[in-house]
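User: I'm curious whether this sequence folds into something compact or stays loose and floppy. Could you predict its structure so I can see for myself?
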Amino acid sequence: MNDEDLRAWLWLLRAPGVSPPLAVRLIEQYGDAATVLAAGRGNWSRLGLSREACTGLAEPDRARVDLDLAWLAGAADRHLIVYTDPRYPQRLREIDAAPAALFGIGDVELLRQPQIGVVGSRHATAQGLDTAQSFAAALVGRGLVVTSGLALGIDGAAHRGALAAGGPTIAVCATGLDRVYPARHKELAHAIVARGLLVSEFSPGMPPLAENFPQRNRLISGLSLGILVVEAARESGSLITARLAAEQGREVFAIPGSIHNPLARGCHQLLRQGARLVETVDDIVEELSGVLAAALSEALADPGAAAADTSASTKPTIESEPARDLRGIWQAIGDEPTSVDRLIERLQTSAEALSVGLLELELEGWVATDSSGRVIRRVRAEPQ
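Assistant: Here's the prediction. I'll summarize afterward.
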């Protein structure tokens, strides 16, 4: 994207009266931001735009756009992923009120990987924090990206669990990415940038306003194949995320707890409403096995290569050992539970490549992951 196009996108994103759904509608009408701006007041009015929106498009806040440009140019790992960008995640395009663009710091290619949202109470119990961390570690061990909201409590534990297991994690923020909220997660945010991605639909400079958090929650669910709720009170932002996930056609998973724990009541309410009860990470992987295979195929495909074919139907079948391209991973695991970091060291491969291989092995029934995120061989049942 050249500087003129980038400026046009930032102008559109900053225009008062132009909501995310309206911005997307304009892009779908005109094709790109520069053409939207060139259309003029007459065309905008004929589309039904308000006077405020027309004025916002015609008279941009150039100083703020310049600040956005300066922020993006401030580091090589800062990005603007616009609605027409091949890197913009397809699952997010499918939700109501999809954002017109995302700001990101870190590895934006993670947006195309299969993700599980892990959410819960900011005031979690010690057991809840341990559960979130161990589930996140196990999930990344299966080749999934753990996505959460960088909040205190369960969110932070999920991010830390993913990182500790050597896997990637995405933090969806409710502020501009020029600040970290909450401030005590500054060190965690830096660790996520090094191994994952911070992402926000809000421009730099946006403070942590109350109305931003439900908007952030719809992105967590929109990016994910499913949402896991670890601990939540009956009146909780996590239940908002779960409701949005259900409305978006995502699976909702909940971990049950003690009837004496107030933070289990939100999960129990979700279970009564039809959420999937989760005791181990296998419950999630088995429920999502079909959609995981499709998501993996999409993630591996080159968006610019129509001939690329990495569908689940090409996965190898084997009688006594995994297929040749997965055999090295299977052999490197050995007879004892093995951490992902140790496998990366043994195989001299990248975390992303290993995650893809482990997911294929898991879906074929050759490996599993224990509660600490370590990979183990498993005996494969005879085909039915």
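Summary: Residues 297 and 311 are 5 Å apart (CA to CA). The longest strand covers residues 101-106.
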